[in-house]
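We were asked to recover a plausible sequence for a given structure. The inputs and outputs are reproduced exactly as logged, with field labels preserved.

PROBLEM: sequence recovery
POSITIONS: 267
GIVEN STRUCTURE:
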């Protein structure tokens, strides 16, 4: 089996039961961390991350490794959110990431509401790879810990037309080999059904070059949330690059056309 340049030979997996995490204080990371895996079986080549939410609030999720009370964040501030309380929103996303054997993996969240809850699970993926071929560093851009969200993206008042770019970061601090784009609901509990096509671009303001075009995303008027909100894919972006996101939306409602965006680069 091949994932990009990664060859898996006799691959196998290790799953963790979901940890139902409560945010604690508003817009503050909850403590203590919730353990997902006590000790990984082998060095990993990646993980399948599963997030589920029924809390009607936006959230930022950290993944960490290390002994209890000595956790170190390895992936920070993945944005996730839903709309209507009580309707489950579940998404899965694969992330290539090197984690040593014997690592304890845990998670914590922050949310707009002290009662915000998120279900988090990881399935570790193991296999044989060339040394150094798997990302081992994650850098998150655009997260707003003040409101547990990200950078607001506005497609503009003309439906089905790309709006202006929203800057996610002025300059990346590490070269990127893989991207995770996480989109937030802005805690909007009264969504109108709509669809977006989202572009991710690099380059100076006014001279952006689209590197990932027309990612399809939609909102539900029943669940009042955004679906397809986690996008993970290989993408080469040099260090020092400006990243920006724009979108078009099928509606022009001043509130329901908006969403938040956070980008995590893996190197």
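RECOVERED SEQUENCE:
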């Amino acid at each position: 089996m091949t994932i990009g340049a990664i060859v898996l030979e006799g691959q196998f997996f290790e799953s963790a039961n979901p940890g139902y995490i409560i945010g604690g204080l508003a817009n503050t990371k909850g403590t203590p961390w919730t353990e997902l895996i006590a000790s990984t079986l082998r060095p990993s080549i990646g993980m399948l991350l599963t997030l589920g939410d029924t809390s009607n609030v936006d959230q930022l999720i950290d993944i960490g490794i290390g002994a209890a009370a000595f956790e170190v964040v390895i992936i920070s501030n993945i944005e996730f959110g839903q709309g209507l309380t009580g309707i489950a929103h579940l998404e899965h996303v694969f992330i290539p990431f090197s984690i040593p054997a014997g690592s304890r993996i845990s998670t914590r969240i922050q949310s707009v509401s002290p009662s915000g809850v998120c279900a988090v699970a990881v399935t570790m993926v193991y296999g044989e790879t060339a040394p150094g071929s798997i990302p081992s560093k994650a850098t998150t851009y655009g997260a707003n810990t003040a409101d547990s969200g990200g950078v607001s993206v506005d497609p503009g008042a003309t439906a089905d037309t790309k709006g202006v770019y929203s800057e996610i970061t002025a300059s990346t601090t590490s070269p990127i080999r893989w991207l995770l784009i996480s989109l937030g609901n802005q805690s909007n509990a009264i969504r109108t059904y709509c669809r977006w096509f989202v572009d991710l671009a690099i380059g100076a303001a006014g001279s952006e070059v689209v590197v990932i075009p027309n990612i399809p995303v939609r909102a539900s008027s029943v669940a009042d949330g955004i679906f397809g909100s986690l996008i993970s894919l290989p993408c080469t972006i040099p260090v020092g690059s400006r990243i920006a996101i724009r979108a078009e939306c099928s509606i022009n409602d001043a509130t329901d056309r908006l969403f938040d965006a956070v980008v995590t680069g893996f190197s």
